[in-house]
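Need tokens for this chain, all 186 residues.
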Amino acid sequence: PLSTTIETLSRLTHPNDAIFGICNTIVGGDSTPSNISGSNQCNFYPGEMPANAIDNDELTKYTNFGNGTISTSSETQGCYTGFYVTLSNSPSVLKGVQFRTGNDNPNRDPITITIEGTNSTLLTIGNSWVLIYSGSSGLDNDPGRYELGIQQTFNNTIAYTSYRLLVTTKRALGVAVQYSEAFLFG
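Here are the structure tokens for all 186 residues:
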């Protein structure tokens, strides 16, 4: 598998961290909550929820349909979805991210992302977030299913209690965005 590991960084997210799915959200914009009701707009399946993105289990995944439904398909459906998470060990300085692909549908892989940080408790309010990273997810080249992408690192020196990750583009035409893990490192 294609992967890069930076030994000096450790995972910031843990399975017990508070995590919330979001959709139709842009950098600096208010967060729109995703719902656990299936395959419609701003929905995710009950078994493919946001908590799966940080559960350290490569056999689970987080799927979000974003601005569409399972009956339609587009290059943008599922984009501008993601999550915000409040770290149990916070505040922490985020310095990297690494994705693990889901079990199927490579077209759903996130290709570009943004990550924002905040120390506010107003997590749905857009102007409380500060942009930290905008760029590749590390999955530019498909590593295969259940595989790690290349760890992306960036310069950040500010510790935040919460982070918001948004997928801005995906690999190709499809009905959703999905990934098994989104590891945040610091």
